[in-house]
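Bit of a strange request maybe. I'm writing a small parser for structure token strings and I need a real example to test against, not something I typed by hand. Could someone generate the tokens for this chain?
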Amino acid sequence: MKNLIKISVTSLFLLFLGTTFQSCNTTKNVAEKVDSKELQIKLRGTWYLTSIDGTLATDSFKGEIPTLNFDFDKNRINGNAGCNIYNGSFELIENMYNPSPMVSTFMACPEYNQEPRFLELMGIRSTLVFTNTTLQFVQDGKVVLEFAPLTK
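Reply from user aminoacidic:
Good idea to test on real output. This should exercise your parser:
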């Protein structure tokens, strides 16, 4: 009988600990989520590319530097991809960016650039992360695109 009481008390204690740790973990995850409306306010305006795959945009684009604009009324994005104009639709759930494939004009680009890679990355689901005033597109734990706001 004494052993049965010890086992019961031990089991209850372990159950209590497991529930407590699970609750703490759940609270942490909820606190890390970003409100979509707050994010929409931060994303307003034109953004210009500062890096792609860890390389400075000025090294990857020898003409125009790509830009990005969000239109939350129509859930569309558009901008200059370095040579061609692009656009597409997207969905933003918290800080998860879910795009459609990008479409663009098809002009010949006289300058070397990473436009195909840029359009590819813009068309892949990403987590949006803000650090100070930069906007990062994170895919598989790696920052693949980084933007800064265009000041007027």
